Fold:
Amino acid sequence: MKKLGKFLKIICICLLYSSCSFADKHQDPTQAAGFSANAKTLPHAGTTVTLSPQMRAEPIGASTYSIQTSDVAQNLDNVIIFDSQAAYEAQPRVLDFALDTAYGTSGDLAYVAGISQTDNVSAYTILKQGQNYKNKDTGEYLGMQAIIIGAADVQSYGDPQTIRITKASEPVEIGARLIPRTGLDLPAVIETKIPTVDVRGYVISVKNPKTGVGKGSTLIIGLGSRNGLEFGDILNLKEQPKEIFDKKAKKKSIVGSTSFGEILLYKVMDKVSLGYILSTSRPVVVNDVVSSKP
Structure:
């Protein structure tokens, strides 16, 4: 009986050891290292990691919601901003029209100077000069807007070059400039987010300066990538702080600015950005405040 008891004891010890070994082999490595099941670990330097959408980690609140680009694309205007007047004037320019008219339209041939065959570009966007922008507070020059008015294809090179106007939203005049065909490069889904920087600036342009613009319209703000802004950032539209004078108490007080809407940044350049108005309780006008703070 003593031998049988000893034998059974040995079997129990072996089974216990096997069970522990199996658990160790199948234990979550993050738990074995003292991490919770939801802990995230960073790769060592020099390693290459392929991330799938399910594995992407983002700070809480970094992404507010998604917007299908197809739902807003028809309302998104593309605007070209040049750093200087000289940069705009350096672009290829329209010299004249084949029909000897003062302007051209869709289907017309035009003569151009400045297009080089070595550029290997045959499709162009037609521009006209727009407004110059400055920082409201500092007076810094922010750039010059060039308005897209059409498109053209090169028909022949030489001196001058010949183009055919394929699209014109308004008459193309002598002196109009051309740049290689450009458009908005947008993803299928726009992931909106709160900016990681604290910024404050102004609306510098809207389509209807006299009446202002509403929800679904676009605008230009005097902030850009140099201020830390990125594509998909959401900014608040805010009222200007108001100064109130109490005649009886003979003192002044400042009423803080309140938010009245939101805009989505869909094209961010160095000094300026294009925004889409997501919501507003009143018409948005030039010099309205934009801020990352609510």
